[in-house]
């Protein structure tokens, strides 16, 4: 075989290799966890926030050692209350220090809004067995300039998370009742109160998904035993709460393993639909420190819960952030109980950073979540009253508690008529009339107003004219008679003269 033929044959054999597509590096399998770069400083009860493609881990507690919660430990004196600020870059897989938070604290609410991070409230001083001091301070970090500034303090130091919807920040939980809904307006630097959480739930977490705030947690007895789990959703535009499917029982029972609720924590994050289905992931700590952490997945489309792969590293008081539709569980602490039946333990702060790849990762879910709503709209008739009207035209003005897909009204039990807004009911006959307004919301819930019964009595024209005409005629006759009598008297007197 000639050299040219040999070379040609070699090229033919190599061509498939040369034109074969380059295979990308395989991504993490869906519903799985990957260990990522750890924090530089191990901490628990820290604020973890995502902003502009970065994760920020701010503040927290560095408590450590044997039975640190025994009476007498002073967290401030021991330097356990942190102001450290670290930034994580997923592209390089590294953490770098940023300017520390001015006020060291832990258990505070944190949220990213308009390229800034708001750190609100938290514990600034704790002397175990003597006092615990919470602050109302509101400090804002600007990553672009690596600077901090103070804003208006919160009304009550929060006990829950911060959530951004529209141009407001909502803090659910806090104060004496732990049901408060504190609303912050960054534009005016002011606070107001929204509708409170329907009931107090312990270890509550809250996340935002498609403009609504979901809050999950547990009801507890005075003895700290768990009675039930709860899941509520808050709609900021209507300032209303709706009850949704509660967390499954195995989440807080440990599937038969006793669990003391006073030693527990949880955190949550929501995937946005950019690279995976829109879901809420809630991670829990079990009292018995063995095995991974439960990872429960809420589907707001059909109001149901499922199980995701558990978090590999058992811990509590961790932070959760979502970046590129992946869930990061950052920091926390581990309590070692040599004897499970007593309260003696050793606490170890953790720098662990683990990332979860959700089910079906890589498939976007752009469609908006249909708000699961089981509550019918509330309708109030504001104009028509239970009284008598002397006209055949009556105003029908009404209000509805939420956006309505359809509005109808029924008069005297007749077929429902469509409404597009306030109207005037005309041509009403004499007698009693019954009026009801109906509204169907976007979830198919039908609401009805109270029945308004009013009476129409239109006076007959003869009734209106007879009395005044008779009166006028009588008056004229009386005047004529008086004038005539006076004239006769006058004439008689003239004759005598």
Account of the protein in words:
The chain is elongated, with a radius of gyration of 36 Å. 12% of the residues lie in helices and 40% in strands. With 497 residues, it is mainly beta. The protein has two domains: 32-357, Kelch-type beta propeller (Neuraminidase, 6 Propeller), CATH 2.120.10; 379-456, Immunoglobulin-like (Sandwich), CATH 2.60.40. The chain is built from three helices and 39 strands. The strands form eleven sheets. Strands 31, 34, 35, 37, 38 and 39 form a six-stranded mixed β-sheet that branches. Strands 1-29-26-25 form a four-stranded antiparallel β-sheet, with no helix packed on it.
User: Which segments are poorly predicted (pLDDT under 50) over 5 or more consecutive residues?
Assistant: 5-26, 253-263
Helix fraction, binned, reads 10-25%
Mean pLDDT: 83
CATH level-3 fold name of the largest domain: Neuraminidase
What distance lies between the first and last C-alpha atoms, to the nearest angstrom? 173 Å
* Class by alpha and beta content: mainly beta
Summary tags:
3 helices; six-stranded mixed beta sheet; 497 residues; 2 domains; Neuraminidase; Immunoglobulin-like; single chain; mainly beta; 40% strand; four-stranded antiparallel beta sheet
How is the topology of this model organized?
Layout: H1 3-19, E1 32-35, E2 47-51, E3 54-61, E4 65-66, E5 81-89, E6 94-98, E7 109-113, E8 116-120, E9 123-127, E10 131-134, E11 138-142, E12 147-151, E13 162-165, E14 168-172, E15 181-185, E16 190-193, E17 202-209, E18 212-220, E19 226-235, E20 240-243, H2 249-253, E21 266-270, E22 280-284, E23 295-299, E24 304-307, E25 319-323, E26 326-330, E27 333-336, E28 346-349, E29 353-357, E30 379-381, E31 388-389, E32 394-396, E33 398-400, E34 404-411, E35 417-419, E36 423-425, E37 431-441, E38 446-448, E39 452-456, H3 461-496
Parallel strand pairs: 31-39
Antiparallel strand pairs: 1-29, 2-3, 3-5, 4-28, 5-6, 7-8, 8-11, 9-10, 11-12, 13-14, 14-15, 15-16, 17-18, 18-19, 19-20, 21-22, 22-23, 23-24, 25-26, 26-29, 27-28, 30-33, 32-36, 34-35, 34-37, 37-38, 37-39
